[in-house]
Design goal:
This protein is α/β, with parallel strands linked by helices. It has a domain of about 220 residues: FAD/NAD(P)-binding domain (3-Layer(bba) Sandwich), CATH 3.50.50. It is about 35% helix and about 20% strand. It has 16 helices and 19 strands. The strands form four sheets. Strands 1, 2, 10, 11, 12, 13 and 19 form a seven-stranded mixed sheet that branches. Strands 8-7-15-16-17-14-18 form a seven-stranded mixed sheet, with helices on both faces. A three-stranded antiparallel sheet has the order 5-9-6. The radius of gyration is 22 Å and the shape is globular. The structure holds flavin-adenine dinucleotide. Flavin-adenine dinucleotide binds next to helix 1 and helix 15.
């Protein structure tokens, strides 16, 4: 059987590619190593609570925004119910050392007004900074339908770092912290983060902030339903072990089971450092393969899933970013657990009843659990004991920083080993390959005809970045102008 396209990986980018291609009449097959599609974002239930895993909230989905157009074009707008986060403060920063806290309202003008009032001497600088981000956040090829596709990514390699850009705010370290706290959502420190990356991620949230009723599970189910109606196929427990090539082009894939499946195009959405080991020697240039192998990864994390016996109303439709003091960022995983920056969100933010579930994301390095490495289904008792110990330590930390969280009950803890097993990202990198200044992340098109790349490394992590990556890759097959034409008609 010959497919038009095989997509390796049923994450957000894989499903987006599959949907776009299947809709255009292509015969499409998605292959996923995990027993279920989209293991990173589908969430799970424990102790009667649904917990989101790799999706909590999305930026840039406000009415008439360019990202909303993509959502509509994919068919997600009709399938999903969005709810807005708290207009007066969707993300709050708490600086433990000084006891200060700041809430970011939704919308560039609202942020200017609020922070301008709190930091009157910085008012003009705040306004200029936010105007700059407002102009840049949607500077992605498929959001801005006039941007040249070929130039994409260059600014992220050569521009200024976020840290340099924030030197304007040197007299106000709290503002520096506030404007860089969203680096936790892309996993690159302000020293190494391109200003464009921060503008795209943080800026999308400054623009508008939404959750999805039913969370990541509802998002995945909607994508799967759309894919099924478009005639796309999906196979889980189907780990690809090799790409099949002829000297000039891709021919298909081989699964771990030995089965071979053939296709004109193969789209790889895996962490790109994994690509070289799937390819026979000699089909791509050694310099290119070396570049892929050396791509830097984002840090990993512990993710705490806990139950509170009292209501967590203070976290409804808002998240809390905690920094021990200004200048400590999520990328600082060399610090002891108690001195790291972290993030707290309520589980089931869109639901009507009492909120009792908590998700805490605390950056970590793989080395912290590497001694317990083992296949997923055969973890040792020592690892489970270690997990329990880390979990309890983190609950203590949360209660110290936030007294409303005293008495939490640990229901589950994901470690860097869990993240590695769910995504196959080396060392459980939370957002896979990062976009670091000076690093050339791969483009969707490779020199081997029919072999394309997609995924968060191509554009940016998050719903916005992975959907854009899906359009960039599928547009390389379908024709960018034709796909952009469809989007123009959807505005
Ligand atoms: C804890 C956490 C919280 C997050 N919170 C948010 C949020 O609130 N909002 C937001 O917008 N984004 C969030 N993100 C980011 C978002 O989840 C990711 O950017 C996105 O899911 C990445 O999608 P992807 O398709 O690029 O990669 P992946 O989802 O990693 O997809 C790759 C797929 O390939 C599969 N695979 C790997 N190897 C093979 C193989 N050999 N054969 C077959 N299949 C294979 C993997 O199992 C995986 O399913 C969060 C991420 C994490 C980890």
């Amino acid at each position: 059987m010959q497919y038009d396209a095989i997509i390796i990986g049923a994450g957000l980018s894989g499903l987006t590619n599959a949907l776009l291609l299947a809709r255009s009449g292509r015969r499409v097959l998605v292959l996923e190593q995990h027993p279920q599609p989209a293991p990173v974002v589908r969430g799970f239930s424990r102790g009667g609570h649904y917990f989101d895993s790799g999706f909590h909230y999305a930026g840039g989905l406000g009415k008439n925004s360019p990202f909303r157009t993509l959502f509509r074009h994919l068919g997600l707008e009709d399938k999903l119910k969005l709810f807005s986060f708290a207009a007066e403060g969707f993300d709050c920063l708490q600086i433990s050392e000084t006891g200060e806290s700041f809430a970011l309202p939704i919308g560039f003008e609202a942020i200017k007004a609020k922070l301008g009032g709190q930091f009157p001497q910085a008012r003009q600088k705040i306004a200029a900074y936010l105007d700059d981000i407002a102009a840049k956040w949607s500077h992605f090829p498929y959001l801005d339908l006039d941007t040249a596709i070929s130039d994409f990514g260059m600014e992220a390699v050569h521009g200024n770092s976020l840290h340099e850009r924030l030197q304007d705010f040197a007299p106000w370290p709290q503002l520096q912290s506030l404007f860089s706290m969203h680096s936790l959502l892309y996993g690159v420190s302000p020293n190494e983060a391109p200003t464009t990356l921060n503008a795209q991620v943080a800026g999308s949230y400054y623009h508008s902030v939404h959750g999805i009723v039913g969370g990541g599970r509802a998002l995945v189910d909607a994508l799967l339903e759309l894919l099924r109606s478009a005639g796309g196929e999906i196979r889980c427990r189907s780990e690809v072990s090799a790409l099949l090539t002829s000297p000039e082009r891709i021919r298909g894939v081989r699964l771990v089971s030995g089965e071979e499946i053939f296709a004109k195009n193969v789209i790889v959405t895996l962490n790109p450092v994994l690509l070289p080991q799937l390819l026979p020697k000699g089909v791509l240039r050694p310099a290119y393969l070396k570049r892929l192998k050396n791509l830097r990864q984002t840090p990993s994390a512990y993710i705490v899933f806990a139950r509170s016996h009292r209501s967590l109303e203070f976290l409804r439709q808002r998240n809390l970013f905690i920094q021990p003091r200004t200048g400590v960022f999520a990328s600082d995983t060399h610090r002891p657990l108690e001195e790291r920056a972290f993030y707290l969100a309520a589980a089931g933010q869109g639901q009507k009843g009492e909120i009792n579930g908590l998700v805490g994301i605390v950056p970590a390095s793989f080395a912290e659990v590497a001694d317990w490495e083992s296949p997923r289904m055969r973890r040792s008792d020592a690892y489970l004991a270690r997990k329990q110990q880390i979990g309890e330590r983190l609950l203590t930390l949360f209660a110290q920083k936030c007294p409303e969280l005293a008495g939490l009950e640990l229901l589950e803890l994901a470690t860097p080993l869990t993240l590695r097993d769910y995504s196959q990202a080396p060392e459980g990198a939370i957002y896979g390959v990062g976009r670091f200044l000076g690093q050339y992340n791969p483009h969707p098109v490779t020199r081997l005809e029919g072999l394309l790349l997609s995924g968060q490394a191509i554009a940016a992590p998050g719903l916005l970045g992975t959907l854009v990556a899906g359009y960039l890759t599928s547009g390389s097959i379908l024709g960018h102008e034709s796909l952009r034409g469809e989007l123009r008609a959807c505005r």
